[in-house]
Amino acid sequence: MDIKETEAAVEAILFASGEPVPVEKIAAVLGTGEDEIYSAAERLADEYSVNRRGIRLLRLENRLQMTSSPEFAGEVVRALEQRRPPRLSPAALETLAIVAYYQPVTRAYIEQVRGVDSSYTVGVLADKGLIEPCGKLEVPGRPTLFKTGDGFLRTMGISSLDELPPLPDLTSDEGIIALQNTIDAMKNAENGEDAQMKIEES
User: Fold this and answer.
1) What is the pTM of this model?
2) What does the alpha-carbon distance between residue 159 and residue 162 come to, in Å, rounded to a whole number?
């Protein structure tokens, strides 16, 4: 299979799936290496972006997904008559930040950090695909562990958790302010604004 055929096959698989597809699975189906799949995906992503196409190809850790271009979100919503999903509450953003930086975590750990019951908030984030169960903690009661899901990477506009800014020192007032700035930036990104999470060095 030559380069163009590989690109076309990757494009077809992702278009048909609509969901993130593991690169390992695509490589196995096409009988090629994972590096070749990543290269093909990168070329496709560049082509879509440079030519201002209505689709984008996203890399989500070790998975790939085809989505609509964010600049046409308004047109897509109107054409499909979809209502814009409700924005995340401050409590949900706090919980999401805790999961993102300390994952995998239990609901009890989240509640310990936040100081309030978080069962409803955890459920909301799980329903939105921003966090997901990833196993059980090996202690009495075996509480569920949570980690960020693919929805988190898409919402934040990043390909990997490695792109998250470093966690500030929460033992100082400056660090707490920096964390709040990060949460605010996450809120902006969730609201569809072109914002990047930045933490100022103290």
Assistant:
1) 0.52
2) 8
